[in-house]
Design brief:
The chain has 324 residues and is mainly alpha-helical. It has helices spanning 2-7, 22-69, 86-92, 95-127, 134-146, 149-160, 165-174, 187-211, 216-224, 229-240, 242-257, 261-266, 280-289, 294-323, and strands spanning 71-73, 80-82. It contains 14 helices and two strands, in the order ααββαααααααααααα. It has a two-stranded antiparallel sheet. Helix 11 (242-257) runs antiparallel to helix 14 (294-323) and helix 13 runs antiparallel to helix 14 (294-323).
């Protein structure tokens, strides 16, 4: 037994891989990082043009507006001086700004829900199998959005006119002056009607696109459970539309706070009703181009941008939590 063990060859120790010198390891690591950077750089070639345009058309104007808001033109002393946050303090105490903000806030609270409900009803009707010529109605409802905004306001302005157009003809026919869409009491509802007419089709298309992505198995399961039309809408379609509703709401909030075209064009028809500070955007525009107050105009724009971003973020956060 001892002899057999002695005849067995001694096992050689496992060969350890040769260790590279520290300098070679460092060079290999650097070369690997360079290859990764070069590989990642191909993606930057695709996103680079977008980032350049984004920086020039979005980031640069915002930065310049912030820069302008920190200065003030001293008319009597001459030149532009650095005032820090004084312009922002003035904006927060400006009654014209808060009057304009309150007006668009009321516009937002009333007009946006009405518009989204109408768009939702139109999308549900078109998506249902009971509506004949659904494609025709889809195009007809979406068609007002294809009309340029200025043309749409001019068209409705001629309808609203007190001395011409449909409103004037109805007053003459009825022998009254009760129909006055451009009066101070009805101006904001008249603008809301124009905006609703323009954007119902746009929001309808968002909702309809979301409805087309609902799996057919959900409808089959609802039919097996004996769900009717309204229960299917409540249990299947509305939950599927939650994300689209949040997106449409955010877009509508931003559009409401940016209200400008409609009141600015209608101002020529009702100059005594629509003031230069009827909306925050009109206020900033007239401060800059009519009053030559570029610094304060930039301040108003920055304040409204921050308020809009905060409200839109809160709506998005709330919608995301409810969808979990």
């Amino acid at each position: 037994m001892a002899e057999s063990v002695a005849q067995q060859p001694a096992q050689k120790p496992a060969r350890q891989p040769a260790r590279q010198p520290a300098g070679q390891q460092v060079r290999a690591g650097v070369a690997g990082r360079r290859r990764r950077v070069f590989k990642d750089g191909k993606g930057w070639l695709f996103v680079g043009p977008f980032l350049a345009v984004f920086a020039l058309t979005f980031l640069a104007p915002i930065g310049y507006a912030i820069y302008l808001s920190l200065y003030r033109n001293q008319a009597f002393f001459g030149g532009t001086v650095f005032v820090g946050l004084d312009n922002y303090a003035q904006a927060l105490q400006d009654p014209k700004f808060w009057e304009a903000f309150a007006r668009v806030a009321v516009f937002l609270v009333v007009q946006v829900p009405v518009m989204l409900v109408l768009a939702l009803l139109a999308a549900l009707a078109i998506d249902s199998a009971r509506l004949h010529a659904a494609g025709f109605f889809r195009i007809v409802i979406f068609l007002p959005y294809a009309v340029p905004g200025v043309v749409a306001v001019l068209m409705w302005g001629y309808i609203y006119g007190d001395n011409f157009g449909l409103a004037s003809n109805l007053n003459d026919l009825l022998g009254t002056t009760a129909i006055q869409p451009l009066s101070s009491s009805w101006m904001l509802p008249s603008i809301a009607n124009i905006v609703t007419w323009e954007f119902v089709g746009y929001n309808m298309l968002i909702f309809y696109s979301a409805l087309r992505t609902v799996p057919g198995e959900l409808y089959e399961a609802a039919a097996i459970d004996g769900a009717g039309t309204f229960r299917t809408i409540r249990a299947v379609k509305l939950p599927a539309l939650r994300g689209a509703i949040v997106i449409a709401t955010i877009f509508s909030i931003i559009g409401s706070f940016q209200l400008f075209n409609e009141p600015n064009i209608l101002r020529t028809l009702a100059p005594n009703v629509i003031t230069t500070y009827y909306t925050p955007n009109m206020y900033a525009y007239n401060l800059s181009f009519a009053g030559q107050q570029f610094n304060y105009s930039a301040t108003i724009a920055i304040v409204m941008g921050v308020i809009t971003a905060v409200i839109a973020y809160v709506v998005q956060l709330r919608g995301s939590r409810e969808s979990l």
